[in-house]
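REQUEST ID: PR-0412
SUBMITTED BY: lab tech R.K.
PRIORITY: routine
TASK: structure prediction, single protein chain
INPUT:
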Amino acid sequence: MRNIEFSIENKIIELHFLLSLIAINYSAIAKVNTGNILVSSYLNWEEQFSKLLEKDEKYS
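STATUS: complete
OUTPUT:
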């Protein structure tokens, strides 16, 4: 009986470990995606700002 309980405890620990790895992986993916969004929005803002400057130089 003790062997079965020990085996179940090991499986629970393994499952907990695997779920932790999955959570860490998704957290890292979310941080990378957030970083990509921030960088792309900054580049988009920089592009729009340079277009505004070009228009401003044309009309002045």
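NOTES: Residues 2-59 form the longest helix (58 residues).
REVIEWED BY: pending
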